[in-house]
Amino acid sequence: MKLVVGLFLSLLLSAVPVAADESEIKQLHAHQANGDYESAVLEIIEALKSGELEVALAAADQHLSKFPKSQVGHLLKADILNALTGELSTPGANSSIPADQLKGLTHQLRNRWRHAVQGEAIVHRRFPAALLDMGDHEFVVVADMPDGRLYLYKNNNGVPELIRDYYMTVGSAGYGKELEGDNKTPIGVYNINRYIEGRALPDLYGKGAFPVNYPNRYDRYLNRTGYGIWLHGTPSDTYARSPWASEGCFVLSNDDLLDIGQYVSAEKRTPVILSDDIEWLTLSDLQQRKRNLLDVIEQWKRDWESLDTQAYIAHYQPQDFNLGKGDYAAWVERKRSVNEEKNFVQVDLDIKSLFAYPGEKDMFIVTYEQRYLSDNFAGQSSKEQLWKRDQQGQWRIIYEG
User: Fold this and answer.
1) What angle (nearest 5°) sits at the alpha carbon of residue 25, between those of residues 32 and 88?
2) Residue 50: C-alpha distances to residues 4, 54, 82, 119, 285 (Å)
3) Please, which of 58, 131, 176, 257 could form a disulfide with 233 given CB 3.0 to 4.6 Å?
């Protein structure tokens, strides 16, 4: 019997590493917002790992009594019953489930299991490299699209604190959206800009939706098209969808959507970082990387205040100036003319957020409140900059506005 179950698990959980310490999985479950669902699924798999089919069956029955719409729960129970008769050879054997749907369910189980065996060692001890400075934001959402996981971080006196993580679905064609209708989820830094109640939506979107501002400025510069990228829930007949199943949105179970809705909002323009490859850093490494980039920004500020126009403009990328929306030569001439009329310039910056930009090598986005004072002008404004390191290793501003 264990041989049959072992074959089943090797196929179901292929390419998933073994946990170094199974107690870590139990600790991880305590962090889940709606951990009962995922913990129960993992409990069933743990029983299967041990060859305890009767225990696994009891766990599956208990899980389905609480979550009758759990498709993975029904799959696991059917396979346990087949294993008890010795007839199970592959996940979903003797099942009438269509091949594509079966593939999606096994993919979901692999993602949940992968997170369990790797999660405690990584996500609760390290930090996404993108979260350099949450600034004034109380919460930031970070999506790990390859692993199908959505993380919610709280700003704890400047240090990101993971308070929730959720199983997540992305586009049916994966991620890296380029064109309208390609069924991919975008990669980039966005903000929640609206909330739509579930009762105003078709059933497909579940209990509600939080649209984000795709395409953003950088997407438009790269000629990316499409619209309607939302964080939303699941249909009423489904608890959780397969990892790749949406038309480009990123999707949570309805329970998890309602839970995250306590923290994110359009009013606060909660940042959403949709990442194709999360780099996990220690806190000291994250803080050092932040200091390095703040030094870059500080040098730009000092060069501006120095009235050395040549040093100041050297921080800007001439090619495709301001993401192709500006005339570099005219801007340089204007800066020279303005500086000639100045005796002093003082610039104060209040950083509102600083994020490494996913999907791009050596690029970051910073927002700040700028207070400008000179002998003939004073003003205050909200600003955003995109910085990218060029081929010579020099950080350049590719957008400012």
Assistant:
1) 105
2) 12, 11, 17, 21, 39
3) 257
Express as a percent the part of the chain with pLDDT over 70.
88
Q: Which of residues 113 and 57 earns the better pLDDT score?
A: 57
**Cα–Cα distance, 121 to 364 (Å, whole number):** 27
Confidence of residue 47 (pLDDT cuts 50, 70, 90): confident
How many other CB atoms are there within 10 angstroms of residue 271's CB atom? 25
Query: How many alpha carbons lie under 13 Å from residue 165 in its C-beta half-sphere?
Result: 24
Q: Phi, psi at residue 305, to the nearest 5°?
A: -70, -25
Q: Determine the number of helices (DSSP H) and then strands (DSSP E) in the chain.
A: 12, 18
Mark residue 280 as left, alpha or beta (left: phi above 0; alpha: psi -120 to 50; beta: remaining).
beta
Task: List phi, psi (to 5°) of 249.
Answer: -75, 170
- Listed in sequence order, the residues at least 6 apart from 132 whose beta carbon sits closer than 8 Å to its beta carbon are 286, 289, 290, 293, 354, 355, 356, 364
| 15, 112, 157, 285 from 39: Cα distances, Å | 21, 10, 31, 32
Q: Angle formed by the axes of helices 71-84 and 2-12, to 10°? A: 150
Q: Is the pLDDT of residue 388 over 50?
A: yes
**Quick one: 127-280 is in which CATH superfamily?**
L,D-transpeptidase catalytic domain-like (2.40.440.10)
Please, what is the end-to-end C-alpha distance for the chain in angstroms?
66
Q: What is the pLDDT of residue 121?
A: 63
CA distances from 394 to 166, 210, 271, 384, 397 (A): 38, 37, 27, 19, 10
For the domain made up of 283-400, give the CATH fold: Nuclear Transport Factor 2; Chain: A, (3.10.450)
Element (H, E) at 336: helix 328-340
Q: Are 79 and 93 in contact (CB under 8 A)?
A: yes
Domain residue spans of the chain: 2-122, 127-280, 283-400
**Torsion sign, CA atoms 146, 149, 154, 160:** negative
- Quote the pTM value: 0.89
Is the pLDDT reported for residue 9 higher than 80?
Answer: no
